[in-house]
Amino acid sequence: MDSNERAVNQVKPVIEEIHKYEPTLEKLDIKALREKVEDMQKNMSRLVDQLPEEQKISIKTIQKRSTLPESEKKIQGELMKQLPEFYAIVNEIYKRKVGIHYFDVQFIASTILAQGQKLTELKTGEGKTMVFQLPAFLYALTGRGSHVVTVNDYLAKVGGEYAGHIASELGLSVGIITSQTSYKFITNSEVKKFKGEETYKEMTQLSKEIGQIKISGMRGYNLIECDKRDAYTCNVVYGTNNEFGFDYLRDNMARRLEDIKQSELYFVIIDEADSILIDEARTPLIISAPAAISNEMYVRFASAVKRLTAVEDYTVDEKAHSAVLTEKGIEKMEKILGVKNIWEDYQMAHHLDNSLKAMTLYKKDIDYLVKDGQVLIVDQFTGRVLSGRRYSEGLHQAIEAKERVDIKQESQTLATITFQNFFRLYKIIGGGSGTILTEAEEFYKIYGLDSVSIPTNMPVIREDKTDRVYKNRAAKFKAVAEEIKRVHAIGQPILVGTTSIEDSEYLSGLVDKMGIEHEVLNAKHHEREALIVMKAGKKNAVTIATNMAGRGTDIPLEKGVTEVGGLYVLGTQRHEARRIDNQLRGRSGRQGDPGLSRFFISLDDDIMRIQGGQIVQKLMEMTNIPDEMPIEARLIGRSIESAQKKMENMHFDSRKHVVEYDDVMNQQREIFYSRRRSTLELAERAIGRVLRYPEIITKPLSDPIVVNSREELLDNLQVTLFNELGGVINKHYLNEREDKVDLEKMLDEFLDFGPDSLIAKALDNLRSGKKGTIDKDNKEEINARDVLKEELKKKETSEVREYLEGVIRQINLIKKDELKDNYFELIKTVYLENMDRLWTLHLESIQDLREGIGLRGYAQRDPLVEYKNETYKQFEQFMESVDSSVTRRIFKLDTRTTNRISTMVKPTGLRTNVEEISDILEGTREMVTSINNVLKKQQDKKDSENRKSKTFSNPQKANIGRNDPCWCGSGKKYKKCHGKNI
């Protein structure tokens, strides 16, 4: 018995327990069933209430869930005890409300998911929607947040509304989070109350037409818009992976308690887990704001690179996804731009790199669309438009310049996280899709998740035919069109999958010429996506779909289709991953229906051309058979499989690379976000506002919580001030070294802590023994520098720190007396403003480091180790900078600036930006062009294996140009480093 069978067999006794409850539950009315659920909620609430509040804050990732506290394990154990009866109750609700029931295989999958840290493979049509509801509803009993993640807003709305019909009968609420707005589910009776009689009549009429509740019948009638926080407070929340991730980042940018929207990240079910955890895992989530940079350069370089000639001026490596200027190309660009050395100016080199990439690597209608004067990124795995997403660091602007549309400003990263580290924040994870097992190793290594294949309720009888291989693309598509014509003639529905928008529209043109009515489903027509896919199972239907567009929508077969062979799925190209091929095949043969799948491929398809190897190339040259005749050879099949494995391994390495580097950044993010959140909540308590999610409780200023929080906040500020003072003294007034005693420089830095007048007041108070603000009648003005110099000359060096700390205490008291309650609002504002500003600069600094760290490999140093060391140093400097910045600002603000700053709002112009390639933390950016030139020179001299192993260990032996990076890994040009004196 293998591990998969063992996992399935282990839960079978639980299924028997579920069935034992059925006879009893059938006799109970809805009210009695709901009371049972309420009792379960109360039972769980008693355990959850014992948890400390800090345990419910989701900032730190969980590397090993086996290390969760015993209190968490106890809660999960109690849920598993309640599982059989609860699942039986949900099943009973389904029977009464929808007229269907759960099959045993669905109970098996749901029980495995409830155990946590497991993914299930369920074939198409096995009812994943119903399966995912059971564990989501079960964990909702805790009141801690149960999230269901989908791949797009449409599926979130439809899935959430459908779940609401069942959850509402259990007394559970359902919220929905989309990129545009948020919703709550309302019952049919509430529809009349909140949406009016007319809407209620429309809903009732639709219900009569459908006959029973179906997911295809969800039209949004039972959804009402609400605040995002209200949606998150629901027992179950549906939403997209992007929006959940962005809300996490936004919450950690919040400057008021009201801006914290998200509940605890406790339990999550991920629908289409392979798409979200694998396909999008190289795509970090980024929140950015516009940075004011001139767009002139983009236009200038877009025009300049168009004058370059391929091969002669630049070379393109599709496999490495890079474009490199030749020496001749560099000379030509320098002549066009009128500069002597283009690499001396970083901005020019950066613009050149982006413009060359935009021209050579990013193809219109494949990588992006141009629609309504905008460049829209297309997801290469799904074919969908990634709305709201932009390539960062000027690449998107370079593409806009290339396409001659309005150029938007570059973005400045404010917050970022990878999907890997976001989902690690959840204490318990589950999920599934139709294709899980092929990526089981990655799920386990990256996320610590086990994968289990669930047996189908009905055996799969779909016939998977062998591939038909054609010599070239034109012959392949001609054959595909003929196959569509043949199949259409017998009435069999056919779904044709393409890998790009360009292919789908090319094929559509061929089919049009044949006069065959068909639908095209790709990123340009996503509004009709679900509707088109639902009709793909009708007789004579011809549907051309880009890369699994419409995935997640069921394709029911029309009456009479089974007699003509069921749904025919035809793939026009093998995908980079076998898993995606299987997803396409899986659209046919659902729930025991007949079906057929086949791939038509050509030897010049991208995957064969880039990864197919020399054997296939030789085969192409040797075959003299007609283009229209398909080739059938095992060699081709092996080459395809080999090519796919290479691509899968390459993508896995890339994602692993992302994790390795982002794990370093993640430690810093956790420390920063923890400190920021504690600062925000402490300062808010000092103002009289306490967060007890989802409520914000107002406390009187005399309340012990407020009083203690004020003392703690002032103590924290004082520690910050004293630490900064210690740094100033150690820098200029070291007791152990006379050469380090410089009174004037120390006074310069100390007087930068606040205005001279304020420091003078503090000194006067110290002299007179007063505390707080001096008498207004005292008109005598003193010179702070003179007084400090006079006093410090009287002190032993060991007494200097104690004296200056006394001055700071006085300043603190004066500001507190002067600003009264506003002082605590000021402290909060100054801390958060400086933390956020410096964090943004820190991210930019890490971005620069990440881009150049690969060069350390030339000095035979591990780039990852170097990255860890450098980022640690930079983070220490960042944390010190926060304290220093707060110290040098807090005392310089008066009542007028306090009133202005207390009304501070979030940064304007924020946008979400998730990109496929070249992110600041992702590590998929190619090396800068000048480095590629070095590699190009090596390539001309040695074969490919030597190129890979070549390192610069000795400048005398390596053929390094004076403008190339130095072999030592410093990042400087050779002529300005080790080649300076050569």
From TrEMBL:
User: Which InterPro entries does the entry link to?
Assistant: Helicase_ATP-bd, Helicase_C-like, P-loop_NTPase, SEC_C_motif, SecA, SecA_CS, SecA_DEAD, SecA_motor_DEAD
Keyword Ribosomal protein annotated: no
Domain called Helicase C-terminal: residue spans: 476-637
- Annotated region described as Disordered, given as residue ranges: 936-957
One Pfam family this chain carries? P-loop_SecA
Query: What does the entry give for GO biological process?
Result: intracellular protein transmembrane transport; protein import; protein targeting; protein transport by the Sec complex
Q: Which organism is it from?
A: candidate division WS6 bacterium GW2011_GWA2_37_6
Ranges for the SecA family profile domain? 1-632
Composition bias, kind Basic and acidic residues: at what positions?
Answer: 937-948
Query: What membrane topology term does the record carry?
Result: Peripheral membrane protein
Tell me which PROSITE patterns the record gives.
Answer: HELICASE_ATP_BIND_1, HELICASE_CTER, SECA, SECA_MOTOR_DEAD
Which catalytic reaction applies to this protein?
Answer: ATP + H2O + cellular proteinSide 1 = ADP + phosphate + cellular proteinSide 2
Instruction: Report the protein name in the record.
Output: Protein translocase subunit SecA
Q: Matching SUPFAM superfamilies, A to Z?
A: Helical scaffold and wing domains of SecA, P-loop containing nucleoside triphosphate hydrolases, Pre-protein crosslinking domain of SecA, Sec-C motif
Q: What residues does the Helicase ATP-binding domain cover?
A: 109-289
